[in-house]
Amino acid sequence: MVSDTKNKKLIYKEKRRKEIAENALDLILSKGLSNFTMDEVAKETGVSKGTLYLYFDSKDSLIITAFGILVERLKNYIGKLIPKETSKEEKAKAIIKLYSKIIKEFPSDDLLRLFEILINSIHNKKRIKELVELFHEYYSQLFELWSEFVPNKTIAIILQAMIDGIGIYKSVGVDFEEGELCPSLEFIIGKIIS
Amino acid sequence: MVSDTKNKKLIYKEKRRKEIAENALDLILSKGLSNFTMDEVAKETGVSKGTLYLYFDSKDSLIITAFGILVERLKNYIGKLIPKETSKEEKAKAIIKLYSKIIKEFPSDDLLRLFEILINSIHNKKRIKELVELFHEYYSQLFELWSEFVPNKTIAIILQAMIDGIGIYKSVGVDFEEGELCPSLEFIIGKIIS
Amino acid sequence: MVSDTKNKKLIYKEKRRKEIAENALDLILSKGLSNFTMDEVAKETGVSKGTLYLYFDSKDSLIITAFGILVERLKNYIGKLIPKETSKEEKAKAIIKLYSKIIKEFPSDDLLRLFEILINSIHNKKRIKELVELFHEYYSQLFELWSEFVPNKTIAIILQAMIDGIGIYKSVGVDFEEGELCPSLEFIIGKIIS
Amino acid sequence: MVSDTKNKKLIYKEKRRKEIAENALDLILSKGLSNFTMDEVAKETGVSKGTLYLYFDSKDSLIITAFGILVERLKNYIGKLIPKETSKEEKAKAIIKLYSKIIKEFPSDDLLRLFEILINSIHNKKRIKELVELFHEYYSQLFELWSEFVPNKTIAIILQAMIDGIGIYKSVGVDFEEGELCPSLEFIIGKIIS
DNA sequence: AATGAATGAGCGTTCATTCAT
DNA sequence: GATGAATGAACGCTCATTCAT
Known about the structure:
- 4 copies of one chain form a homotetramer.
- Chain A has 194 residues and is mostly helical.
- Helices cover 81% and strands 0% of the residues of chain A.
- The first copy, chain A, folds into 2 domains: 1-56, Orthogonal Bundle (Arc Repressor Mutant, subunit A); 60-193, Tetracycline Repressor, domain 2 (Orthogonal Bundle).
- The termini of chain A are far apart.
- Chains A and B meet through helix 6, helix 7, helix 8 and helix 9 of A and helix 6, helix 7, helix 8 and helix 9 of B.
């Protein structure tokens, strides 16, 4: 019984933690990593600022948890889009379609903020270590996607880097010929997985 | 004579401006955009904080100037490596070699910080506008490199995005098989410009 | 009960706000509007500077609140002195006496500072708007005093302007024949309300 | 000869001093006493900031000199308007007209700034002493104007205080019935000098 | 467990004044 | 005599973190 109560409490606490982190993430996504404050997180969650420190040691650890949620979101987003086709040819087509879709929807603040958080944390040893671990969860899923079509994992990673590079380029104002982007992407991917 | 003295002063002033901006850039590169302060720039340059404002209107304009220097650095770095070969075939080989070199030297904090500054400035309308203009100077040079080998400019941009994407990936801790990276890159570029 | 606690807190908070504003007012009165700093207000109140900003959005809003207290003080001061006589003749005499008293007590820094704050805020659109609203509370009370004896409101205002003008003159060092001031005032008022 | 050169220099220096002070005054009139800077004075005069300190010991002494010029200006303005009529009756009418004119032209920033400078200097012992001396030059001229029509000097001062009070009231936003102001003023003055 | 008042170190910026040239 | 670069103390304001209740 006692352990039941304890369990309930733990579950409640975990729920609360997540709620806070989600609000933090929303703020990070909308205002940028270095423009969001603990005050706002507290206000958004409807608790006092002190309460945040019952669930998180520091702003840093809140950022890390928020980052984890972002990674989870992106994983789910991609997961749903991953082609289930069995024939290799159809799968190839589906992948091209998938990435065209992703790219079309850029600038996705989500992806950009993911890199913002990562890049901004490079001088924070402790933080970057934890973030990179979470980030791995996200990209390893993507690399697998390519694995069937390319000679080795490194090429898979490079292709994924290309996609993210395009996203960042779009976000920071590189001017793509809007109509040319998807066909060009298809052209490139086609060449490689052929 | 008078104009000589004036000229000397202007040159001196310009030199001072650059000195400050370079110190600012160093600090940005070493501590990150959101961790560097005017106090530190002053200390590093050996002047008082007030002096900085004789040369720059605001922290923002100092950041923009520092960014300009960074862009210039990257341009020079690339400029020196750009192949002068005339035969198309040799040029192709040279490009592959060039990018292998660039990638090998990553994680170059320079490139990463360039994107950090850009990404972090997205919520600052005035600043991002000026940064993007400077950024254009950098990447347009690169796009030209590819133009001979690809059907359109967009593909050139995508290839460059891929290179930058790899740089960012390396910087944030994606683990490339060190030995595989360059050959893989060559494989991809080869496929595309073939 | 809950609402009781809440109430207590609100009252406490309001008390604190007032305490801060009163200290600010004291400083304004003693050092002048453009010489008082948030640091001093904090020190005087015995709190940290940051705390001030829990109670006031800005220095401006603190000034406005302090000004409100000053207006209130002046209103109370005048309120107590306002004649309750019913016969018009007696009331006239009482008014003359009232103003003689006010003038005798000059230079009242209070009144002078009231105008200092107003005059110094003329280039601050937002602030002056709020100050003038508060100022109205003060002088409309005074104008009524005269209304019974003069043909129109404008004359009432002018008479009040005269009183304030004398106050300012005394404060800035115009040398009145001390013994002549009150009789002269009585002479003038007598002429007008006759 | 030597003394001639010296003289010339002195004259030149005095001219320069005045030029600087006039620019300072213009800035004070347009931006307010606590909003003008030595930088702006230098820029406006076309000299370096350091040069200002060859002509003035401090910002304070520049303010005092500028104040003197303002007083001079007001004296000239009034001087020109002072009635030269010989018959007492005509002179009375002329005075009423004169003050109607002055009041109509309010809010004259000039007069308001005169009081702003005075009021703001009350906590600056050295400065206020010098200002008051200059101020006397201005108002003593005005008091004489009334002297013929009133029983004593104090009443003359009070009437002048009334005029200045109206000016200040207008400047800080007291709402006069525009059409009523001059007739009311005439009514009051008429009553007193009758 | 939760609060929210309080802190205090730190930030970007301003400006009267000085002084080597 | 004139310069203008440099100073440095001060200012208003912010915010992650703490702690008594």
